[in-house]
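B., you asked whether I could sanity-check this one before it goes into the benchmark set. Here's the sequence:
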Amino acid sequence: MKIDSLMLAAALPLAAAASPDFLPTEPPVEARLAPALGARGVQIYECRDQAWAFVAPEAVLLDAQDRVVGTHGAGPTWQLTDGSLVGGRVVARVDAPGGLEIPWLLLQAEDAARGAFAGVSHIQRLNTRGGLAPTGTCVNQQSVRVA
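And here's what the prediction gave me:
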């Protein structure tokens, strides 16, 4: 699998790109801009000083047939089951439509991209569902996984 661009149709909880309800229907996405991989997972938050703080994402990467082909985690990093790896740095952020999901992101791929990710220049997190930090007070050392 050679990936020229890693664009995740994502919901962190990251949602499968292969699932039609997570792909925009209007306007149609140009084939060159369509997500190469989808993802499904959670956002992990921890209570610090009685406030929820983001810790890390934890997700699986999915191919067009909804098969697990890798993972996504802290860093942020994306790794395929063959060992291919790419990290990213946020360069742009916009609120998700509706404001009830985590923001959409554009990330610059890090120089250490290797394997199938060697040619990746940018990563997009799009079409998010949920994943926002809990509201209200919390007890220090408590952690939650938000889908």
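One thing to flag: DSSP finds no helices and nine strands in the chain. Otherwise nothing jumped out at me.
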